[in-house]
Design brief:
This protein is α/β, with parallel strands linked by helices. The protein has a single domain, classed as Rossmann fold. The model has no long low-confidence stretch (mean pLDDT 91). It contains ten helices and six strands; from the N terminus they run βαβαβαβααααβαβαα. The protein has helices at 20-26, 52-65, 79-89, 111-121, 127-140, 142-154, 157-160, 181-190, 206-209, 211-230, and strands at 5-9, 31-35, 71-76, 94-100, 168-173, 194-199. A six-stranded parallel sheet has the order 2-1-3-4-5-6, sandwiched between helices.
């Protein structure tokens, strides 16, 4: 039996470092890749920040080069926007998707509101995790930071969701103020084959804050979909 492949895509304010805990938790049962999107982490990028569609095309090209045509691709936070675009534009490259704390809900679709939602999330996030994110954001520089935020706000994930034909799992931390409960439910309803999983006591980005819970949900999702197809 082939080992399931899972590809992890970080958010625009972060890097693959945020997904390493989830990668380790998934590794015993999956072949796992954690990507640095162009211009983030250790990945070189163009002078101008890419928009969500261009990043999705880049991930599709990487999957093709790696000869991965039946991967489960999981995004966290604004990485969900890249994954949703990928599944809508390149359905042949993915077999399932996971959206962990999908952004951006319409009612927080401005720079001020998304920062406020992020600040409300902070009391539920370990200090070391906040420090890591701030370190990553500062390393981006003010110009790319602003450009990346504008790219996130300009992309409306709900426009991509109805076009996604592959099975999709939406994961949300019960304390998530960035992707609140009603919005997670709306995202799930927009998907043709979507299901919602809520993790108690966790804030935004379950993959980062509760990697074992994230891995367990992904494990069940991958196995369940695989068994249904086999039947």
């Amino acid at each position: 039996m082939d080992v399931p492949v899972v590809v992890l895509v970080h958010g625009f304010e972060d890097s693959s470092e945020s997904m390493l805990g989830a990668a380790r938790a998934l590794a015993p049962d999956h072949r796992v890749y954690a990507l640095d999107l162009p211009g983030f982490g250790h990945s070189e990028g163009p002078a101008e920040a890419l928009d969500v569609a261009a990043l999705a095309d880049t991930v599709a090209a990487w999957l093709e080069v790696m000869r991965l045509s039946h991967a489960t691709v999981a995004g966290s936070s604004s990485g969900c926007q890249v994954v949703a675009r990928l599944a809508a534009r390149h359905p042949e490259r993915v077999s399932r998707i996971v959206l962990d704390g999908p952004t951006v809900a319409p009612h927080v679709r401005s720079a001020a509101r998304i920062v406020l939602a992020w600040l409300r999330n902070l009391p539920h996030v370990p200090l070391w995790q906040t420090a890591r994110v701030l370190r990553t954001v500062c390393a981006m520089g003010p110009r790319r930071r602003w450009q990346s935020l504008q790219r996130v706000l300009a992309d409306h994930i709900e426009d991509s969701l109805p076009s996604i034909s592959v099975p999709a799992l939406v994961i949300r931390g019960a304390r998530d103020t960035v992707a609140p409960g009603p919005w997670a439910g709306e995202v799930t309803r927009h998907l043709r084959a979507g299901r919602l999983h809520v993790v108690p006591g966790v804030a935004h980005s379950v993959a980062t804050l509760a990697p074992r819970a994230f891995a367990a949900a992904v494990y069940r999702f991958v196995r369940d979909v695989s068994h249904r197809r086999a039947a």
